[in-house]
Amino acid sequence: MDIETRIKTAQGDFEYGYTDPKTKDFVPASKLKLYSLISTDDNESIRKAAYEGIQKSAPAFLDDYVEYVKLLNTFAHKLGFEDFYAYKVFTEEGMTKKELFKIFDDLYEKGKFGFENIRELAVSNPKLKQPWNFSYMISSDFEKEEDPYFQFETALDVWTKSFANLGIDFRGSTITLDLLDRKGKHSNGFCHWPELIHFENGKRIPGRSGLTCNTIPGALGSGEEGIHTLFHEGGHAAHFLNSDMQDVCVNNEYPPASTAWAETQSMFMDTIFSSIEWRHRYAKDSEGNSYPFSLFERKLEKLHVFKPLEMMGIIAVMNFEKEIFETKNLTKAKVISIARKTKNKFSAFPINSLGLLTVPHIYSWSSTCSYHGYGLALLAVAQWRSYFFKKYGYIVDNPNVGKEMLKVWKLGMSKTFPEFVQMATGKKLSPQYFLQSMIAPKKKYIQSAKNRIKTLDKVKQKNTYEIGAVINLVHGKTKIADNKKGFELMEKKYNNWFKTQK
Ligand SMILES: [Zn+2]
Q1: Sign of the C-alpha dihedral, residues 249, 250, 251, 253?
Q2: Residue 363 to residue 367: CA distance in whole angstroms
Q3: Distance between CA atoms of 170 and 205, rounded to whole angstroms?
Q4: Mean pLDDT of the chain
Q5: Ligand 1 center to residue 232 CA distance, Å?
Q6: 3-state class (DSSP) for residue 337
Q7: From the CA of 422, how far away is ligand 1's center (Å)?
Q8: How confident is the model over 47-58, as pLDDT tens digits?
Q9: What spacing in Å lies between the alpha carbon of 374 and ligand 1's midpoint?
Q10: Which of 73, 270, 272, 381 is the most exposed place for a label (fewest CB within 10 A)?
């Protein structure tokens, strides 16, 4: 492989593909596309081919990976750490590896009933045992049913309105949104900051941030993905663009920043978007009908047994990287064996999948050994939500929530994760809030959902799009619209252009 391909590969842009089961031709497809085929294609042989395509490509860059791990470990040893994982947890989260894994080993023990649930289901439905059927069977019917309530054309409207009603203000910063997929585009939604908040002669200079995702116009789930990205990446943007720190090095996501604290902000926004009360108010089909409660109930009925799986997926990556960086004389064969073994531990059936090798984070310096950030963030989000519910009774469209978030956002990344959690919630970081929701019975979920909708129905929603940001909508280098002449005009212009892309 030449150096450019190697870099692209390492960044996750590698062209994957699958063998068409009928024609036997190789069909190039991005990794994202393959994963989407596995969870949505109605044809089992296509799903299987996509799964096999991923398995085949997964170890393509292990030579570099082994070398990379060794270099990172050498770097960490020179700084006095036992390995790179220990270095990462300490510098990013102010924690030791031991402290970290104590929390997550315990969560694994308490959550592994999720795998037992799947094994029970597979008794009457043996197809669940095949990895190319699993995510399809648990997700596809809902994705189709939910799609009309998440139209991409409403994405800007519901996002801006929600943020404005939360009282989020970007304080004069600029946000550039590049939402549609195109050939060669990085295959992951993300947020970056080409200009950080900084001070010139004592004056605070607003920053600039860019948000991107891979919406495929007209594709199933594209609206959902678009809105979700705006909430998640918009949460990251709001966080850093609200910093008041004079030291620029704490106004971005690189060390000494805590991945966990950064993700706490974006994943907090995710929980607003995924909450039933938000959907009840904001997610509407083209006739104006709200996301149905009955759909929420049916979805819960089917998916409740899988509740621990999200956290299990995170702990799997953590365990994989921990072992990789602890292994002496690492080789390709050892990497493959650790990947299979770990995946088996975190699956209901021994599927021997190499899926862990397709997680882009493991190949990129800034995110290697940082996956626990998502796990810690889930804990902090649960803790923060519980704090807000106790204090105010509701979160969606509550400007007090934005106000309190702003208070900690102003500090950028100047504290460690445990310090920030304590500051925001008044309590020490604890897994108990997350755990409570992971093991809560169905009935409790439904009752709490009903209560939250009832509470929100009494809360007035302001008809405002004022989030204090200069917004640019682009497609690569082409500018499509901006909000110089108001939000409505920008939205109209963008949606007209979007129609031509379908
Ligand atoms: Zn994020």
Answers
A1: positive
A2: 8
A3: 12
A4: 93
A5: 6
A6: helix
A7: 21
A8: 999 999 999 989
A9: 8
A10: 270
